[in-house]
């Protein structure tokens, strides 16, 4: 069947990049759906408000207002979890102690620049939160996002024209249409959504893609 | 040594118009609820507030919580923080922001932390790699250290730090609960006067010294919170 991936399918594909022994920060949105697909993976989830070892959402009636994640939702602590202050939590991020961060984005460029915090010329009040810290400090940054905006315009572009969050930091892009690696030679298309061709994905993308010789369909 | 004050109202009695105040908490988690309510009642104006978020709102019922109380009552002149959040969409925040009445200083969350920590730790600043190559680097001194570019981030001082702990003693030793530690543990000692509200006051010695998160020397006043909503 030919269809773009759902948000859950993107989260499931992204989860396959996460392996035993990793410390991972998951952003708000699609990344937040990833834990459901990490069953059996020995991973510690970092929440930047000061929780290392985030567990599942707190069941209704068992919410503790003193125990929340970065999205301000009541959660549980996983066995072996640890609490730290904000300064220590961001020292962990900035100091390169996390293995991976997964974030949403407005745009990603051909060189791995990411824009995910502000809209140009908008009258909205800006807010950056931990996004710049995460992309600056984490060795492996993965982006999960839809491949195109609602008007069809591409989100993977040669150069970002939205305000940048960081330069040259994205390593992997998982969209509803493709899995793309950012390499020193440029963007490599490794996987396409079932039923789509590399030519079609290229046409929906604002940057030149090199097609991997091992191109496959995303396993759903 | 006894740093306890009888009420939140008395604890903030010397906070005047134009004060610079840090507020512990992340969203509504670990906010000094009682001190915030007392500030709203006192009606001090032209405040500069330093906080991760601008409080919280109940979109359905329309209520303002945490720091949003001070924006709702137009007591704030400047917000210094990282992520104002949903409060920023409301007329009482957006209106003054767009007219220039409300000033904003936005920075990365970790930078906010380190700048506060500099004030607490007596440092003249720190070099951070966060924000290099972005518009938030504009106007900042940059320096290449061991081949990597950093931005000079200066200390963030305040007149008062209002923080919250689960437990404290009269000497100002504090213990936080879960993620309510957040900014509370960072802001303690970063202002001229640190006022801690606690849910429970214990006798000195009740905590094992290994357990203390914030040593009492960083805290000038301790008040037991009168009433807790403890919203998620």
Which labels suit this protein?
heterodimer; A: 220 residues; alpha/beta; Glutaconate Coenzyme A-transferase; 10-stranded mixed beta sheet; 4 helices; 13 strands; 30% strand; globular; B: 232 residues; 9-stranded mixed beta sheet; 3-stranded antiparallel beta sheet; 14 strands
Can you put this structure into words, describing what you see?
The complex is a heterodimer of chains A (220) and B (232). Chain A has four helices and 13 strands. Chain A has helices spanning 7-15, 86-94, 131-137, 198-203; strands at residues 23-26, 44-47, 51-57, 75-83, 100-103, 107-109, 114-115, 140-144, 156-157, 170-174, 178-183, 186-192, 209-217. The mean pLDDT of chain A is 96. The longest helix of chain B is centred in the middle third of the chain and has 13 residues, at 109-121. Chain B has a single domain, classed as Glutaconate Coenzyme A-transferase (3-Layer(aba) Sandwich). Chains A and B meet through helix 2 and helix 3 of A and helix 4, helix 5 and helix 6 of B.
Précis, in short:
The complex is a heterodimer of chains A (220) and B (232). Chain A has 220 residues and is an alpha/beta fold. Chain A has four helices and 13 strands.
Task: Compile the SSE list and pairings.
The complex is a heterodimer of chains A (220) and B (232).
Chain A lengths: L6 H9 L7 E4 L17 E4 L3 E7 L17 E9 L2 H9 L5 E4 L3 E3 L4 E2 L15 H7 L2 E5 L11 E2 L12 E5 L3 E6 L2 E7 L5 H6 L5 E9 L3
Chain B lengths: L3 E2 L2 H4 L8 E4 L9 H10 L4 E4 L5 E2 L6 E2 L2 H5 L3 E6 L9 H9 L3 E4 L2 H13 L4 E3 L13 E4 L2 E6 L4 E12 L4 E2 L8 H4 L3 E12 L18 E4 L8
Q: Enumerate the spans of chain B where pLDDT stays under 50 for 5 or more consecutive residues.
A: none
Q: SSE string of chain A, helix = H, strand = E?
A: HEEEEHEEEHEEEEEHE
Count of individual beta strands of chain A? 13
The largest sheet of chain B, given as strand count, sense and whether it forms a barrel, is:
9 strands, mixed
Shape of chain B from CA axes? globular
**Multimeric status of the protein:** heterodimer
Helix amount of chain B: 10-25%
Radius of gyration of chain A: 17 Å
Fourth CATH level, the homologous superfamily of chain B: Glutaconate Coenzyme A-transferase
In total, how many domains does the architecture of chain B comprise? 1
Using the alpha-carbon principal axes, give the shape of chain A.
globular
């Amino acid at each position: 069947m030919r269809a773009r991936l759902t948000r859950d399918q993107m989260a499931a594909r992204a989860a396959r990049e996460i392996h035993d022994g990793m410390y991972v920060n998951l952003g708000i949105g699609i990344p937040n759906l990833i834990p459901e697909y990490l069953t059996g993976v020995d991973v510690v989830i970092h929440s930047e408000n000061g929780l290392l070892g985030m567990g599942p959402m707190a069941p209704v009636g068992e919410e503790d207002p003193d125990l929340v994640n970065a999205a301000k939702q009541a959660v549980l602590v996983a066995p072996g979890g640890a609490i730290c202050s904000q300064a220590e939590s961001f020292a962990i991020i900035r100091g390169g102690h996390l293995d991976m961060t997964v974030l949403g984005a407005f745009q990603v460029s051909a060189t791995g620049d990411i824009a995910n915090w502000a809209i140009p010329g908008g009258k909205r009040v800006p807010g950056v939160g931990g996004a710049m810290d995460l992309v600056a400090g984490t060795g492996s940054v993965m982006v999960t996002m839809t491949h195109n905006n609602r008007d069809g315009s591409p989100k993977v572009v040669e150069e970002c024209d939205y305000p940048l969050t960081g330069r040259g930091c994205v390593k992997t892009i998982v969209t509803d249409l493709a899995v793309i690696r950012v390499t020193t030679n440029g963007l490599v298309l490794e996987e396409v959504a079932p039923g789509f061709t590399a030519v079609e994905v290229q046409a929906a993308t604002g940057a030149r893609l090199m097609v991997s010789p091992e191109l496959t369909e995303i396993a759903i | 040594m006894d740093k306890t004050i009888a009420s939140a109202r008395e604890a903030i009695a010397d906070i005047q118009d134009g004060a610079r105040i840090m507020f512990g908490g992340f969203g509504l988690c670990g906010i000094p609820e009682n001190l915030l309510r007392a500030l709203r009642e006192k009606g001090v104006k032209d405040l500069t507030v330093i906080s991760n978020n601008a409080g919280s709102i109940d979109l359905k019922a329309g209520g303002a919580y945490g720091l949003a109380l001070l924006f709702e009552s137009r007591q704030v002149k400047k917000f210094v923080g990282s992520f104002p959040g949903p409060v920023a969409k409301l007329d009482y925040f957006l209106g003054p922001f767009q007219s220039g009445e409300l000033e904003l200083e936005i920075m990365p969350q970790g930078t906010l932390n380190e700048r506060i920590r500099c004030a607490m730790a007596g440092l003249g600043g720190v070099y951070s790699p966060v924000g290099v190559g972005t518009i938030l680097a504009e106007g900042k001194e940059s320096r290449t250290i061991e081949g990597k570019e950093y931005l000079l981030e200066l200390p963030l001082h305040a007149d008062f730090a209002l923080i919250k702990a689960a437990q404290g003693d009269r000497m100002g030793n504090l213990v936080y609960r879960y993620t309510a530690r957040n900014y509370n543990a960072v802001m303690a000692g970063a202002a001229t006067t640190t006022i801690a509200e606690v849910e429970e006051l214990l006798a000195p010695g009740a905590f094992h010294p290994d357990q203390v998160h914030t040593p009492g020397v960083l805290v000038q006043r301790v008040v037991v919170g009168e009433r807790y909503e403890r919203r998620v």
